[in-house]
Fold these 2 entries.
Entry 1:
Amino acid sequence: DAGVIQSPRHEVTEMGQEVTLRCKPISGHDYLFWYRQTMMRGLELLIYFNNNVPIDDSGMPEDRFSAKMPNASFSTLKIQPSEPRDSAVYFCASRGGTGDGTNEKLFFGSGTQLSVL
Amino acid sequence: GQQVMQIPQYQHVQEGEDFTTYCNSSTTLSNIQWYKQRPGGHPVFLIQLVKSGEVKKQKRLTFQFGEAKKNSSLHITATQTTDVGTYFCARDNYGQNFVFGPGTRLSVLP
């Protein structure tokens, strides 16, 4: 397996523009997570899905952020309109879901470095 | 979910010196995970600790889980430049997701 795949690796956009980040989890993983990383706030969980269903989106900063998982192999995180304070590295991660403690580790993608000017 | 704290925030060591980072929680943890993130990279899973007082070793890395399951530590013996990065602990949040600590950034001077 190629691991968790994110695109794009880098995104530079202007304030007010729509940004869409993409993620392909590891095949067979039931959970998908979106994290945001900044120097000030560290690694923050934005939202996570279980079997394509959003379970907890309490970490989503505001209504400008939305996430979807239309199928088991694809998820998007959209920011509309984007603002300079959204600049960060956005990570997608996935894991299996047996809950028996044997496969609960997270596999992270390489991240998307977002810069909003 | 409850947060976990890590100390120190930064650590600079000379190559060959030992390094320890600590992860503390105000509540009892069901388990704790450790991740390493190299500069410019993404977090990579190192280990998971589940049992009270558990000690696990990976080459020069030793991981401990406190008896009360409220703290954990990662100790690196004889650091090398390849150990450079940020080390995160992450606590299980009701078996669904993991909440990450702020991390300890390790610099190793050659």
Entry 2:
Amino acid sequence: DARVTQTPRHKVTEMGQEVTMRCQPILGHNTVFWYRQTMMQGLELLAYFRNRAPLDDSGMPKDRFSAEMPDATLATLKIQPSEPRDSAVYFCASGPGGSTEAFFGQGTRLTVV
Amino acid sequence: KQEVTQIPAALSVPEGENLVLNCSFTDSAIYNLQWFRQDPGKGLTSLLLIQSSQREQTSGRLNASLDKSSGRSTLYIAASQPGDSATYLCAVEDNNDMRFGAGTRLTVKP
């Protein structure tokens, strides 16, 4: 059955290391979203793509975060260098363009120590 | 299992009206409740986050209240504008999960 797949599910890394999170959107969905969830801020939109082009990444710290879609089946969110304040659950979601429907992956729980 | 319900499912008002959107949840053991706005084809925009220890939050023309004991939250929008037209979602986070309501589709007519 169609679902959004995120890898890894859990990641523990040391401060200063590069972290790459991957997302495989549902086949045929042309919109991909990246969200970050923390206790203090709740769910925040970091960036989203349509047809692989970034439409809005204003929610993302530009100095250390980058999001790309190398192809239609893969979206990546990279943090370099990582910091303890980046510890959160990162969700990817995909949806058919033009609607409010979105399907979420199970998230990547990132801990930066 | 936490269930989140939003009423009404859709609402249409003339510009300038004050309005209230409702959100109810079945399990009061929550960490926080968050209100989002969603426009077609776009991601969720966080409007207000209320921690479980708080009773309300305000941002501009928006005010959200939380009554944990009764399992209710309201989003009050003052002096509505056509630009407020969107789907409004509430979500509660508890020990297990984050659960969304189905949303209220708001249309503000000029």
